[in-house]
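PROTEIN–LIGAND DATA SHEET

This sheet pairs a single protein chain with one bound small molecule, NAP, given as SMILES. Inputs appear in the order they were entered. The predicted three-dimensional arrangement of chain and ligand is reported afterwards as a token string under its own label.
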Amino acid sequence: MPNVLVTGSNRGIGLEWCRQYAEAGWRVFATCRFPDAAHDLVELAARRPQVSLHYLNVVLPESLEQLRAELQDEAIDVLVNNAGVYFEKNVRPERLDYDTWMQTLEVNTFGPMRVAEALIEQVARSERRLILNMSSHMGSIAGIEVPGDYYYRTSKAALNAAMRGLSLGLKERGIGVLLLHPGWVQTRMGGPGAPVAAADSVAGMRSLAERFGMEMSGRFFRYDGSEIPW
Ligand SMILES: NC(=O)c1ccc[n+]([C@@H]2O[C@H](COP(=O)([O-])OP(=O)(O)OC[C@H]3O[C@@H](n4cnc5c(N)ncnc54)[C@H](OP(=O)(O)O)[C@@H]3O)[C@@H](O)[C@H]2O)c1
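PREDICTION REPORTED AS:
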């Protein structure tokens, strides 16, 4: 069975990635900042012994180094860069807080790049060799029609640019990279009024991953398979 590694997997969309791949029988490396407090993951691992919990804070290089060493003999078929933050509810554009902006970039942009860099050999030695990034349609510059959300939008637009570049660099090693918009999903980030259930979002993205071909690498898709302009 293939292996998947998910970041920010203790709740929301990340937890759903782990649930669905575990149900499908995959080996799941579920990473999060506080494994001891990740009750839903602990419960999943109790039911599905091929799920293991690992500590990872994507902004801390020492945490990445620890995980890389822990998994040094493993292969990772699908690496899901899921961890993300959105700090902007209630932020007024005339009161920009550059520390918070930087924190957003640290998690949403540098985080996935650090994870990819740290675990690239594990991905390269797998059969599927695929890196999935939870981006957002808010990272589409073509889609900006109202002011605001500067931190989040730039963090995801920069993630798109960086991962598009990485996809070109990794092509000759047969490693694929996708930018994915999960939809507006019912999670702590998306809120209870969001129209898409995490189960449907992840089912759609998994189906995209299943039909992945290298001609799709470096492109930006919604969870339903439609392509998003940059
Ligand atoms: N929900 C939506 O409508 C929506 C739409 C578009 C894109 N997305 C993207 O989808 C991804 C998942 O979103 P979600 O809705 O599931 O959000 P969520 O419910 O807020 O969950 C975010 C996850 O990221 C983790 N995280 C935050 N900072 C981290 C760090 N430094 N290191 C490791 N993990 C960290 C959180 O861990 P803690 O519990 O420890 O804080 C949590 O597990 C994000 O990248 C988000 O930008 C979501």
